[in-house]
User: Which sequence fits this backbone?
């Protein structure tokens, strides 16, 4: 009977786990037994971290896997074409028809600016639907990405881009424009708050100053 009474008193006076102090207030030995162990898998011997992209390297370093949404975004980003390092090799047909294209006037070009194509000729004014950063009026920009260059009778198409050593296309920054201020009121049902949103979109104006197809003598130098 006495042993049951002692056992019952001990059980009643036991401190519940919810009343224990946080782990950082416990001594080192108690903190060791209350902490969980981390399981780190060692990479294989033939693993090379330099082959991973920068985004995947940072995610793997933090221990967080990439989500499907992030992977789909990375897959949709087009990679820029590498700079031309090898000597330009022209086929027989291009060597025959390129001088005719260079001589014939009224050239046009399908230039790509920030991934969007613009079909322009010399003297045209292009109104970009965004504010190009880092430019001021009077700057000269060389447009080195083009999917097609042609004249009245000839057209040179790229796969996907024409080599930039074949042509020269330059545009002058004329300035920036801004549309009138837009004010829109946003409300929700059964809500007395009214949110006012203001937007004023800016545009960059370019003028195509030069468009020239190089000759075979300039390309083969």
Assistant:
């Amino acid at each position: 009977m006495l042993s049951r009474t002692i056992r019952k008193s001990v059980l009643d006076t036991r401190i519940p786990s919810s009343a224990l102090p946080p782990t950082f207030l416990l001594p080192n030995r108690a903190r060791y037994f209350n902490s969980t162990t981390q399981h780190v898998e060692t990479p294989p011997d033939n693993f090379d971290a330099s082959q991973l992209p920068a985004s995947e390297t940072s995610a793997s370093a933090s221990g967080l896997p990439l989500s499907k949404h992030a992977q789909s975004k990375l897959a949709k980003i087009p990679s820029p074409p590498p700079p031309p390092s090898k000597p330009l090799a022209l086929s027989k047909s291009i060597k025959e028809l390129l001088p005719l294209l260079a001589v014939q006037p009224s050239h046009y070009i399908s230039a790509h600016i920030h991934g969007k194509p613009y079909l322009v000729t010399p003297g045209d004014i292009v109104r970009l639907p965004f504010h190009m950063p880092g430019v001021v009026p009077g700057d000269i920009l060389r447009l080195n990405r083009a999917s097609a260059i042609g004249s009245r009778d000839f057209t040179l198409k790229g796969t996907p881009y024409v080599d930039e050593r074949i042509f020269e296309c330059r545009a002058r920054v004329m300035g920036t424009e801004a549309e009138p201020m837009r004010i829109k009121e946003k409300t929700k049902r059964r809500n007395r708050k009214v949110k006012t949103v203001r937007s004023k979109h800016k545009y960059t104006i370019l003028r195509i100053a030069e468009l020239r197809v190089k000759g075979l003598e300039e390309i083969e130098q």
Observations:
- The helical segments are 2-12, 28-34, 54-62, 68-76, 92-103, 216-219.
